[in-house]
User: Which sequence fits this backbone?
């Protein structure tokens, strides 16, 4: 069963609205690993999604947050899905993975740039494999009604992204945290 779905029904973001990776990276932000989207892009996305949304970029890579991915976690938003658009993949071997509550892989994909995908953000999920000399930029869209919550992000635990990790390491870390 696929839990990470491509959404070809959502249109490709027009080139004249899509910001370059350099523009996104150089935008000022109080948070090192995220940036607001432009007003023009937010307006376009609002029209596409048909109701009030919040859109922002996640940026990760060694030079931004010393991470080559995102540790296994469950999002803090009251949303069932994240709608994401990959702006810059961060390498050819980057994998997005979704796990069940027993930490068995339910889906794993190498998601292409400039494609929409829907990810079940209320399930454990992670991203790994960003090239150490590169970075990843993902545009994520939330419905405003799902945005405000007091729930913290539920992280699996500390994770070292300075090496490529695998499923056995992930399960081993989980076992140590549970005990």
Assistant:
């Amino acid at each position: 069963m696929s839990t990470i779905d491509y959404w070809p029904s959502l249109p490709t973001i027009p080139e004249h609205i899509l910001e370059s990776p350099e523009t996104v990276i150089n935008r000022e932000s109080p948070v090192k690993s995220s940036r607001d989207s432009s007003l023009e892009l937010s307006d376009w996305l609002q029209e596409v999604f048909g109701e009030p949304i919040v859109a922002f970029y996640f940026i990760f890579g060694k030079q931004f947050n010393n991470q080559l991915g995102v540790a296994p976690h469950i999002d803090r938003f009251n949303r069932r899905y994240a709608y994401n658009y990959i702006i810059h993949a961060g390498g050819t071997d980057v994998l997005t993975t979704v796990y069940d509550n027993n930490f068995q892989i339910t889906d794993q994909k190498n998601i292409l740039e400039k494609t929409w995908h829907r990810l079940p953000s209320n399930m454990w999920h992670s991203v790994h494999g960003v090239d150490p000399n590169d970075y990843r930029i993902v545009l994520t869209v939330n419905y405003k009604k799902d945005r405000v919550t007091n729930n913290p992000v539920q992280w699996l635990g500390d994770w070292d992204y300075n090496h490529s990790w695998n499923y056995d390491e992930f399960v081993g870390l989980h076992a140590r945290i549970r005990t």
